[in-house]
Design a protein that fits this description.
This protein starts with a helix and ends in a 5-residue tail after the last helix. The chain has one domain: Na+/H+ antiporter like fold (Up-down Bundle), CATH 1.20.1530.20. It is mostly helical. It is globular and about 65 Å long. Helix 13 packs across helix 16.
Length: 411
């Protein structure tokens, strides 16, 4: 009986996999036809085929399958984004990336908390916790958008880099505030928070760099690239190893895979090189795998939208999200990028970065963790997070090309 039950479960998951991938291919073709990033359409279709709609796809949010897709899918998409970056561009904008990924999280959190306190009547601790959860931008959304919309290089790479680097800061602020809200292990310590941030970021960077160097040596060394024929599979393994290696030391796994991608995408700068044949094969494999992960992440994210929870909160939730988009983000960008005199950002670039900051998998995961821990106000935080995900992806992602064209930022 146990064997039969396991076989039935495997058959069900295989059916779900085929259905999701089939729908994903159809949506990708449709997105190309209507000239819009596919993440928005995948999210809409996910809502249609999920339990609240046709009930064709039903993967519980707490299931192992869903968690595996969220973790590995986000990590691989982030690796793909890192591989598309160029060190020469990052050298020009690293000040902006650093400031907006750290101070920017605090500014966004604070402004959003003010809006939540006065518009929804939330107590200050809950309002601040909400601000921290949704303050991070989402690499799983932004990387695919910039893959499909050719934006001026330094703008696109700055926004993608921010989405990778602010993950650690967002998580630290969230769980620091959570400890205070739940009367945890003591009072807030700025020193401890800074040390935690440096540890997560530093060990994450180190993990990605070490794994990246080893893989490059195996596939790109002029004389010892004995694994070059299997570079595609090796990069897949390296993403898993870098992520797990960083999390084992309580550091940012997403930071690790992003740095790994940067290493793999800048082999020539670091003294390694793959043959054109192996390079092309690896790039095709990476693009295909990233597409599969994107399809699963956003269709399943759509199936988990709880409309009942959203409707219970009323219009006040939407007003908070609008304040988050139209006040918190622009203020954050203009302050954090404004201090970077070296980058010399134009007004058009600042406007574009103010608009392009989709909320997605990472904030959704944080909200889910708060729900699982029965944190105070977790249901309200989850509701606002879902609205933020829906509005930013459906509105901002679909208008990225239009705004870039109006601001003359298309590459």
């Amino acid at each position: 009986m146990e064997s039969s039950a396991a076989a039935e479960l495997a058959l069900h998951e295989l059916h779900t996999t085929a259905l999701v991938l089939g729908i994903g291919v159809f949506v990708a073709v449709l997105a190309r036809f209507v000239k819009t990033p596919d993440v928005a359409l995948l999210l809409i279709v996910g809502m249609l085929v999920g339990p609240a709609g046709l009930n064709w796809v039903n993967v519980p949010i707490e299931s192992e399958m869903n968690q595996l897709i969220l973790i590995f899918g986000s990590a691989y998409i982030l690796y793909d984004g890192g591989a598309s970056l160029r060190l020469s561009v990052l050298q020009q904008t690293w000040i902006t990336i650093t400031v907006i990924s750290t101070l920017g999280i605090l500014i966004t959190c604070g402004i959003t908390a003010v809006a939540a306190h006065y518009l929804m009547g939330l107590a200050w601790p809950i309002a601040l916790l909400l601000g921290a959860v949704i303050a991070s931008t989402d690499p799983a959304t932004l990387v695919p958008v910039f893959r499909q919309v050719a934006i001026r290089e330094r703008v696109a790479q700055t926004v993608m880099s921010e989405s990778a680097f602010n993950d650690a800061m967002g998580a630290i602020v969230t769980f620091t505030l959570l400890a205070m809200v739940m009367g945890g292990t003591g009072e807030f310590s700025a020193t401890s928070a800074v040390i935690d941030l440096l540890w997560q970021a530093g060990v994450g960077v180190l993990s990605g760099a070490v794994v990246g160097y080893v893989v490059m040596y195996l596939v790109g060394h002029p004389r010892r690239a004995w694994a070059a024929d299997h570079a595609s599979v090796l990069t897949l393994v390296s993403v898993i190893v870098a992520y797990i290696g960083a999390t084992y030391f309580h550091a940012s796994g997403f930071m690790a895979v992003f740095v790994l991608g940067i290493f793999m995408g800048n082999q020539d700068v670091l003294g390694f090189s793959m043959s054109q044949k192996d390079l092309h094969k690896t790039e095709e494999y990476t693009l295909t795998t990233a597409f599969v992960m994107r399809v699963f992440i956003f269709i399943l994210l759509g199936t988990h939208v709880d409309f009942k929870l959203i409707l219970e909160q009323g219009m006040s939730t939407l007003w908070v999200v609008l304040a988050f988009m139209f006040v918190a983000r622009p203020v954050t960008v203009f302050i954090c990028a404004g201090v970077d005199r070296r980058a010399r950002w134009s007004l058009q670039e600042l406007i574009f970065m103010s608009w392009t900051r989709e909320t997605g998998v990472i904030p959704g995961a944080l909200a889910g963790m708060l729900m699982g821990m029965n944190a105070p106000g977790a249901d309200v935080i989850a509701s606002v997070t879902l609205v933020a995900i829906l509005v930013t992806i459906l509105v901002q992602a679909t208008t990225t090309r239009w705004l870039a064209e109006k601001l003359d930022l298309l590459a």
